[in-house]
Design goal:
This protein is of the alpha+beta class and 112 residues long. About 7% of the residues have low confidence.
Length: 112
């Protein structure tokens, strides 16, 4: 594996003794193009327990994390209310002075 993918533990501490406050030392960021070119190497990192954040033009868009233990997926809970969803009232419409459509169009033009 290339040197830039090697992650070193802080002095005097092994990776297994790191806390969640040290995530910035173990989390790797990668741009989309580099991820596409070296996917296997980044997947090896994930298999070893590291998280990889994917960037699109310096904006985080995804995180690749190791799969938890078997059966540790999402838990489906039953609704806490007995009211059917179609009887829950909708929030009132937005009555602000800002034109939402104009804001969306402006935001889309900036991205291009």
């Amino acid at each position: 594996m290339r040197d830039e993918l090697r992650i070193e533990a802080p002095k005097g501490r092994g990776l297994d003794n790191m806390t969640s406050l040290d995530h910035h030392r173990t989390m790797k960021t990668v741009r989309v193009a580099e991820l596409k070119a070296r996917l296997s190497e980044y997947l090896r990192l994930v298999r070893k327990g590291h998280a990889v954040t994917v960037l699109d033009r310096d904006t985080p868009i995804a995180r690749i994390v190791p799969v938890g233990p078997k059966g540790a997926g999402l838990t489906v809970r039953m609704p806490t209310s007995s009211v059917p969803y179609w009887k829950i009232p909708l929030p009132p419409p937005y009555r602000g002075k800002i034109d939402i459509v104009e804001l969306l169009l402006e935001e889309r033009q900036v991205d291009r």
